[in-house]
Amino acid sequence: MGDRLFKGTSVFMAVGLVALLGLLLWELSVGGSRAFARFGLHFLTGRNWNPVFGREEFGALPFIFGTLVTSAIAIVLAVPVAVGLALLLNEVRTGWLRDPLAVFVDLLAAIPSVVYGLWGLFIMKPVFDHKVEPFLTATIGKVPVIGALFRGAQYCVQIDPTTGACHKIGYNSNGGDLFTAGVILAIMILPIVTAVTREVVAVVPRDLREASLALGATRYEMVRMAVLPYARSGIVGATMLGLGRALGETIAVSMVVGNGLGISASLFRPGYTIPAVIASEFREATSVGVHRSALLALALVLVVIALILAALSRLLVRRTARLVSAQPPPDSVEMPILELTG
Amino acid sequence: MHRFARFMGAVSLAAVIAVIGVACGGGSSSSNGFRGVALTGAGATFPDPIYEKWFKTFVTVESGAKINYQAVGSGGGVTQYTAGTVDFGASDAPLKDAEIQAIKAAGRDVIEVPTVLGGVVIAYNASGLQSGLKLDGTTAANIFLGKIKAWNDPAIAALNSGVTLPATPIQVVHRSDESGTTKVFTSWLSKESSEWQTKVGADKAVQWPVGTGGDGNDGVAAGISQTDGAIGYLSFDFAVNSGLGVASIKRDSDGQFVAPSVASISAAGGILKFPITSDTNILNSSAAGAYPISTTTYLLINPSPTNQDKGQTLVDFLYWALHQGQQQVTSLNYSPLPQDIQTQAVALLGGIKFNGQTIQPSPAVKG
C-alpha cells in the first residue's frame, strides 16, 4: 500500500513536471504564433527589430547572436578557472587557505544577480572601457584574424581640417559590450561550476590516485592522468549547468551588454540578449500590434536553445562516459606512466 | 527594475488603502464642507513624482480624498481607463482616435486635461566641453543616426564658433526600455530630419541605428557620465540633478538657441490648442522663448461620473491642481502651464456633469 502510494505520487509529480514544460511551450507558441505567422523563418534570421507602430519588423538574430556569444565567453573564461579551483581545493594541500577559499566561492553563488549588475555597471564597466579593453586592443587587437574580436568601432582620431581626410584611425571600446557582459557572466557561473566540479573530483576513487602515485606519478601527473579523465563527464555536466545560468541571466547582462542591435566580429561593441530585450520591452508592449507576440516568440526561441544545448550536453556526457568505460582509467594511467618511467 | 519596484509598491499601497477605505467607510460630507472620497488612477510614469506630491498635499485640503495612483505607464493607463477599472487615467500622449473610439464603445467618454509640462534634454559628457553646447535638429538627428561620429565634426563646429571641440568619438546612449521620453524625443527628431523620419520614425521604442541602451533615465545618465564623449537624452526633471552638460537647441521659428529651463519649457505650452486632438503637441513651439523639445501630460477624466462624491472629489482635485498645485511643480523641476492655458484647462472642468448638472468646485478648493 505504502509502496503503491509512493509510486503513484512520484509518477504524478514527474508527469506534472513534464506537463508543465509542455504547457509552457504550448503557451509560448500560441502567444508567439502571430509573430511567426507574419515573419515566418525571417523571425529567426532577420536582423531588424523595429517596434515603431506601423513599421513593425521583428527579427531575432541579433538577440540569438548576443545570447550565444556572451554565454560562450562566460564558459571559456569560467570553466578553466573553476576546474583549477576545484583541483586546488581537493588535490593540493593549501593548509589554512582551503576552508576560507571554499566558503568564499560558495558565497559568490549567494549574491543576487542585480548586485552583480550594479557592480558591473558602476565599477567594472568603466575599468573595462578605459583600461582593460584599450589594453587588449593594443595587444591582441594587433594579431591578424583574432585581433578583429578585440577591436571596437573605428573612428577618426585626426581629421585633416582642410580635406576632411582621416589621418589616424582609433578604436572605440566605450560603453557596454558583449565582452564585459561575458566576463560578468563568467564570474556569476564560476561558483556553480566550481561546486559541481569539486564534487565530481572528490568521488574519483582513492585506489586510482594511490595506484598512480605508487607508479611514480607526481601529484600533477596523477591529476592529469587519473583524476581528470575520470571526472571528465562530470565536468561537462557542470559546464552545462553554468551555461544554463548564463543563457538565462537577465538583469546583470542587460546592465552591461549595451542593449544595442548589432552583429559584428568585435566583442567590444554593444550587443543584446534575449532575456535582456524581453525585460526591457515587456512593460508597454500592448496587445495591439505584433510586438507582444514577437517577445513571446523570442521567449520560445530561448527555451528551445536551452533544450537543444541540454540535449547536446547529454550526448556529450554519454560519449565521454563511454570513452572512459571502454578505456578503463587504470589503463589510461598506466600507459603514459610506463613511458615516463621507461 | 526600479519601476517594477515602484509598481509593486503602488499595488501593495492600493491594497492597504482599500482596506483602510473599507474600515473607515462613508462619511464623505460633514457639516463643515465636503471631505472627499478615495479615488484610484493609473497611467504615465513621467508625471508620477508631481502627482504623488499633489495627492499628498490634497489630503490636507480634503481629508477623505485619498488618491491612489499606479504609475504603470501611459499605455497601461489608457487600457485601465478604457476598461473602467480606475476613476481616472493618465497619459503623456494625447489619445489616438482609435483609443477614443474604444472608450466610447465601452459606453464612456473622456476629457483630456493637461496638468504639467516637461521637456526632453540632450545631455552629454565630453571632456573640455562646458554645458550649453549649441545643437540644431538636423545635427542632433545626424548624431543619433550615427552619421556624425566625432565631437569635432564640422557640423557641430559650425554651430559653436569659438568653442574648442575635442576629437573624442561620440558615443550615443539611448533608452532600452519603452518610454514616453523616447517618444517625445524621436517625434522631435522626425520633425527635424526627413532622414530620421524615413529611417527610424517615432515611438516609445525605436530601432536605434547606433549606440548603447540604458534602462530608465538612471541607466542613460549612468551611461553618459561614465563615458567620455557620450551623448544621450533625458527627461528635464532628471537631467537638472544629473550634473551633465545640457545642450541648447536651435528654434526653427527664429534661429535662437534656447536652453531647457522651467521657464522655457513652460513658455512652450503657450501654443497648446483646445480641444486636445490626437496630433496635439507642443514640439517646436513658436511661443516666445520656448524650448523646442517640450511636452505636456494629460489626465483622462470621465465627463459623466457614476458616483457624485467621486465626481466632486475629482473636480475639486483638478481645480486645486490647476491652481495651488501649479505652484508646487517647479520644486520637482516640472514646468507649470502658462496662464492662459491654465485658464482654458480649468474651463474643461465645466464639462464634468452629474445628472446633467455641472459639478462646481467646492468652496474649500476655491478659497
Task: Please explain how this structure is put together.
The complex is a heterodimer of chains A (342) and B (367). Chain A is mainly alpha-helical. Chain A has one domain (30-324): MetI-like (MetI-like fold, Orthogonal Bundle), CATH 1.10.3720. Chain A contains 12 helices and 4 strands; from the N terminus they run H-H-E-E-H-H-H-E-E-H-H-H-H-H-H-H. Chain A has helices at 2-39, 42-45, 61-91, 98-110, 113-138, 178-202, 206-214, 219-248, 251-256, 274-281, 291-326, 329-341; strands spanning 49-50, 57-58, 153-159, 166-172. In chain A, the strands form 2 sheets. Chain A has a two-stranded antiparallel ribbon. A two-stranded antiparallel sheet of chain A has the order 3-4. Chain A starts with a helix and ends with a helix. Chain B is elongated. Chain B has 14 helices and 16 strands. With 367 residues, chain B is of the alpha/beta class. The two termini of chain B are 42 Å apart. In chain B, strands 3, 4, 5, 6, 8, 9, 10, 11 and 14 form a 9-stranded mixed β-sheet that branches. A 3-stranded mixed β-sheet of chain B has the order 7-12-13. In chain B, strands 1-2 form a two-stranded antiparallel sheet. Chain A binds chain B through residues 48-55, 114, 121-122, 125-126, 129, 153, 155-159, 164, 170, 172, 174-177, 251, 254-255, 258-261, 270, 272, 276, 280-281, 283-286, and chain B through 1, 3, 73-76, 79, 149-150, 152, 154, 167, 169, 171, 173, 176-178, 200-208, 210-215, 219, 222-223, 226-230.
Give me the secondary-structure topology.
The complex is a heterodimer of chains A (342) and B (367).
Chain A: H1 2-39, H2 42-45, E1 49-50, E2 57-58, H3 61-91, H4 98-110, H5 113-138, E3 153-159, E4 166-172, H6 178-202, H7 206-214, H8 219-248, H9 251-256, H10 274-281, H11 291-326, H12 329-341
Chain B: H1 2-24, E1 29-30, E2 33-34, E3 39-43, H2 48-58, E4 67-70, H3 74-83, E5 88-91, H4 97-105, E6 111-125, E7 134-135, H5 137-145, H6 154-159, E8 171-175, H7 180-192, H8 194-199, E9 212-214, H9 216-226, E10 230-235, H10 236-239, E11 245-246, E12 248-250, E13 257-258, H11 262-268, E14 294-301, H12 308-322, H13 339-348, E15 353-354, E16 357-358, H14 363-366
Helix pairs in contact in B: 5-7
